[in-house]
Amino acid sequence: MAHVVAGVGCSHVPAIGVAMDTHITDQPYWQPVFKGFEKSREWIKQVDPDVIFLVYNDHCTAFDSSMIPTFALGVAAEFAPADEGWGPRPVPVAKNHQKLASHIAQSLVLDEFDMTIMNEMEVDHGLTVPLSLMYGEVDEWPAKVIPLAVNVVQYPPPTGNRCFNLGKAVGRAIESFDEDLKVVVFGTGGMSHQLQYKRAGLINPEWDKRFLDLLTQDPVAASKIPHVEYLREAGSEGVEMVMWHVMRGALDEKVREVHRHYHVPASNTAVGHIILENVAD
Ligand code: DHB
Ligand code: FE
Fold this sequence. Notes:
Blueprint: E1 2-10, H1 14-21, H2 31-35, H3 38-47, E2 51-56, E3 71-74, E4 78-79, E5 94-95, H4 98-110, E6 116-118, H5 125-135, E7 144-150, H6 160-175, E8 181-188, H7 205-217, H8 219-223, H9 227-234, H10 244-250, E9 255-266, E10 269-278
Parallel strand pairs: 1-8, 2-7, 2-8, 3-6
Antiparallel strand pairs: 1-10, 3-7, 4-5, 9-10
Bound molecules: 3,4-dihydroxybenzoic acid (DHB) and fe (iii) ion.
């Protein structure tokens, strides 16, 4: 059977991708950001997942205001990096595990989560930067990738609780797939950041740390954090963190925190990263 072995939480700041693509990661500004991913790269090499179920948000790249699905599941054969204004990032195309993706699509809809099904989709920094952080520069992504795009750019995004429950349904879907596959679920975005208006530049390390603690130890309480608290404490874009609850929901209640990294700032954002393993594995 397919099995969820671990979850990864990870920021997706686009400038991190630029730093990698232009080979300036050892500059003093960037060095501490990437240092915190050295252990993660070792870890993922060891775990060697077959599939990554990657929860991310699209930033008006695949979708615009003409159509904004709350939850869009990628079942296409592959997902090319999008041109976000400076040409597509020079990173590999993400290849899907289409059989598992289709199984998850069916399982979620029959489990009463009404997904938008994407038979074509380009992917932006929300998906490519976490893969780059975890795998470094590679010719091919070592795992298949199933993307789940969550709307967090146009009010109202889904609640943390809805995301947590969707994560549980994703976990059930994966665990009921009849092929031996190791799956790691990524929850991406955040941590605290605000990109516009009077509070632009807002970063709240105390609140971010509490979020990471809660995510590991009390995921139900974490999932109950209301939108207004993300906006007030973590800035307008901090609400990206609702996506981490999908990852957490797909894991067991008790998990082992095997790695954590937190660094301020990268661009306008607090970089947060956590690796959680299912204890029973
Ligand atoms: C930044 C962070 C984001 O999450 C994003 O989507 C775009 C920009 C930033 O800090 O620059
Ligand atoms: Fe973002």
